[in-house]
Specification:
By secondary structure, the chain is mainly alpha-helical. It is 68% helix and 7% strand. The chain is built from 7 helices and 2 strands; from the N terminus they run H-H-H-H-H-H-H-E-E. The protein has a two-stranded antiparallel ribbon with strand order 1-2. Helix 3 packs antiparallel against helix 4 and helix 6 packs antiparallel against helix 7. It is globular, with a radius of gyration of 18 Å.
Length: 163
Amino acid sequence: MNFTFDGLKAAATAIDRLRNFKLRLETDKFRDGVDPALTDRAQSAIQQFEESLDDDLNTAEALAALFEYVRDANTAMDSGGFRDGNAPPALAVLDKFDAIFDVLRPTRNETGISDSEVEVLIAERAQAKKNRDFKRSDQIRAQLLDAGIILEDTKEGARWKRK
């Protein structure tokens, strides 16, 4: 397999897709309960992922199992079928992937700002908006963007992700 810039761009897009899925799992509000079929689907994805890696390190097949699961889970989220009890098994799928590839959690050295520092700035920004200090609110948003943090304002409040 040869290195290409298109391949590198595709890999970055794939990682971004997984990070967005993880963000959605951690921040979206789902109805109470568990859909047993989705729990089984998560377990099946982990099993397919592991079996593919055990088969002569077949990463293409392992990644296919992961992305098929992400597609299925996103579809369930969009249709309202995903429940709050399905989030932990979904996160377990991502954890299994990240235990091998280690790309979903940027370290402080990569971004220059820790998760707790981001949360403090977001709280400060929310207070500034409440006080109608929009200049300060905009400054904080710009500061976070410079640190590689993208803010999304939702009806549940601000959520964030790393670039």
